[in-house]
Amino acid sequence: MQGQGCLHHGIGGASPILCAMPIRVVLADDSFLIREGMRELLQSVDELDLVATCSDLDSLRAAIEQESPDVVLTDIRMPPTNTDEGIRVAEELRNRSPSTGVVVLSQYADAEYALALLDKGASGRAYLLKERVSDLNQLVNAIREVARGGSVVDAEVIENIIAARSRHKRSPLAELTPREQEILAAVAEGKNNAAIAAALHLTDGAVEKHISSIFSKLGLGEEPAVHRRVKATLIYLAAEREPERR
User: Fold this and answer.
1) Which end of the chain is more exposed for a tag (fewer CB within 10 A), N or C?
2) Bridge-partner residues for 6, per DSSP?
3) Could you read off the pLDDT of 184-225 as tens digits, one per residue?
4) What is the full DSSP assignment across 77-110?
């Protein structure tokens, strides 16, 4: 049956009595060539039953409603907005049909999209790069995994997620006041309390209080003051070098 942007496929001739129930799959991609190529790949696998192919978000939602698939295999970007339709469908299914697995395909190893897909749990979710689709075993394994509640994330995407989390990790120096950061910079230069007091026009007592606050905010416990000064200096220098690594 031909629907708007969606083709529903009839059930094959295999008897359910003689074989295990196949995994029912709905495929969505706005590219006709990719959709047809993947249709042929999926239909060559006995354990999969491709029940519908769709080209946009609305037809995908309609196919999910009509076919109740075990797994949705979807491009990350489709009409109408070509932004994050695949992620949105995955989130909708998490609420409406949590047992339905979703494999999102993307040509980008985008950590932001992957984190959005996995934000509320990785169970039944996979994020694969489209370039991996030519490896039929990898694709089928991802479909199989999400169908039984597992998860698969492309190794390149994992690397980008780790890098993104590292970039967004809050610096321990963010808790310090501007004056405390100024004093810590002076400590890192090797100045003692008297020299810091003279340079910043503070009393020795004020410098001591600021340094005590710095140690507390950086999580440096009751150790000999010299050790804490060294550790605080190392934290400061590490944070200063972080932008260079990016």
Assistant:
1) C
2) 3, 54
3) 988 888 889 999 999 999 999 999 999 999 988 888 876 666
4) --TTTSSSHHHHHHHHHHHH-TT-EEEEEESS--
